[in-house]
Specification:
With 177 residues, the protein is of the alpha/beta class. It is 39% helix and 19% strand. Strands 2-1-3-6-5-4 form a 6-stranded mixed β-sheet, with helices on both faces. The longest helix is centred in the N-terminal third of the chain and has 14 residues. It binds adenosine-5'-triphosphate (ATP) and the ligand Nc1nc2c(c(=O)[nH]1)N[C@H]1C(S)=C(S)[C@@H](COP(=O)(O)O)O[C@H]1N2. The ligand Nc1nc2c(c(=O)[nH]1)N[C@H]1C(S)=C(S)[C@@H](COP(=O)(O)O)O[C@H]1N2 binds next to helix 6. Keywords: ATP-binding, Molybdenum cofactor biosynthesis, Nucleotide-binding, Nucleotidyltransferase, Transferase.
């Protein structure tokens, strides 16, 4: 039987964590995964405030304890004083993959000039690929559509489960052997 992938969805938002508004972004990411992935997976979902130590703790737990092969964060990537998601991500990762942030900012910039305000990044902790997405619900699809073709192969390279996608939605690219 195919190994079930564990995927972390981490919403980072002061107000959504206090219940002041509904976490649309985290729900959207889960819907996106259900639409696009054809291999079995399980979502580990958590919502935390914009506090660096809490974010780091959640990322470490999802990676080291839950063994997630992929963690998608949303929120806290901007320039405001409480936006610390990239710092927390950088602190827990052994390697940064700058291409992810570059591509996500570039596709977002075609939609909104303030896309350059997002400091979103991606990196590797152990056998986990961590990708930061902006907090705005409408930013998630454009960012995920851009980078997702490279995600399954990246997970192969770090020793994770073999992930497949619905090719009509996302055409995952694996270089020929
Ligand atoms: N999880 C979410 N669900 C719905 N909307 C969100 C979510 N996170 C962010 N947003 C929206 O995107 C905007 C920018 O996101 P950002 O992460 O900078 O949040 P923020 O303004 O710091 O607010 P907070 O951390 O208090 O939620 C927010 O002001 C909010 O309108
Ligand atoms: N695709 C897309 N990217 C986007 C945006 C957007 O509306 N769409 N908003 C930008 C804005 S206004 C900010 S401040 C940054 C950071 O957002 P965050 O703090 O919610 O993560 O993401 C940017 N990236």
């Amino acid at each position: 039987m195919q190994e079930k992938a564990k995927i972390g969805v981490l919403t980072i938002s002061d107000r959504a964590s206090r219940g002041e508004y509904e976490d649309i972004s985290g729900k959207y990411i889960i819907d996106y995964l259900n639409e696009v992935l054809t291999s079995p997976f399980e979502v580990i979902y958590r919502i935390v405030p914009d506090e660096r130590d809490i974010i780091e703790g959640a990322l470490i737990h999802m990676s080291d304890v839950e063994n997630c092969c992929l963690i998608l964060t949303t929120g806290g990537t901007g320039p405001a004083p409480r936006d610390v998601t990239p710092e927390a991500t950088q602190a827990v990762c052994e390697k940064i993959l700058p291409g992810f942030g570059e591509l996500m900012r570039s596709v977002s910039l075609a939609q909104v000039p303030t896309a350059i305000l997002s400091r979103q990044l991606a990196g590797i902790r152990g056998k986990t690929l961590i990708i930061n997405l902006p907090g705005k619900p409408q930013s998630i699809k454009v960012c995920l559509d851009a980078v997702f073709p490279a995600v399954p192969y990246c997970i192969d390279l770090i020793g994770g489960p073999y992930i497949t996608t619905d090719e009509k939605k996302i055409k995952a690219f694996r270089p020929p052997k």
